[in-house]
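If you are new to this repository, start here. Below is one unmodified record pulled from the training split, so you can see the exact layout before writing a loader.
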Amino acid sequence: MLRSLVGSEMCIRDRYKKNLNESGNSTEAIANRAVREIIDKDSFWTDLDALLEVLEPAYALLRMVDGVKPTAGKFYYYAQQLQNHYEAMAEVYPWAESFVSLWRADWDYIHCGFHSAGFAVDPEFVSLDKPPEVEIEFLDIAERMLKAAPPELQLSVDNVSSELTKFNNKSGVFAKAVVWRQARQLPGHIWWKKFGAQCPTVRWLAMRILAQTTSAAAAESAWSEFDFVFNRRRNALGKERASNLVFVHCNARLLRRFQSHSFEEPFHPFQDESDDGTDDPMDDE
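And here is the target side for that same chain:
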């Protein structure tokens, strides 16, 4: 919205010159004169453009996580990119320093080991150097998740580091270029299911981690389903029965979607070539 506002600067200026009543002392006229005074200043548009430059990556991050796409493997990377962006902007615009401190406080609040675990096993970021905290937090998540693994699979947290090293070094099946081309076309959890057999423990973990969303947007859609099921005519429904009706309704709709010939598994594609120096995983082939 703000970007379209900046793009329409001349139209907005012309509109306020031609169409607004600025005569008299009515509340409307006083407000119109105040608005006219603001939009006639070039500094207003310069400051607005600078604000957009600072905030657009944050908007892109929010748009990425606000949906049903599995983005658990992406959030850590893009969050760090956002912090780097704010720090760079603070060098250009001193007032942007407040965004740096605000984001650091937000990150301390929202960050959990699950973000690091997703970053550690996402094939898009295999070529990136990762902070030590990433593998440490991944091991912590692995130890907790493997308690729920079926005993017959014989998965052990002791195998995680060696299997993760095989993945990061692109050895074994991960040495094949076709495997990384497939990574661009498949959601991360499905890619691990197809190609991760040589790393069974990390594969089991990655399939579950990378299939997760990073916001409550998907769950929030159930609220409208409850509104549909539990209304004035059905106000005598008990909590358990209403929950069961919503469960059946939502899952029946999902099943129809999955069985549709046009269904495509939702996923966030690899980042295109950018100016941040991010390497393509296939560049090392």
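Two things worth knowing about this chain: The radius of gyration is 25 Å. Confidence is low (pLDDT under 50) at residues 273-285.
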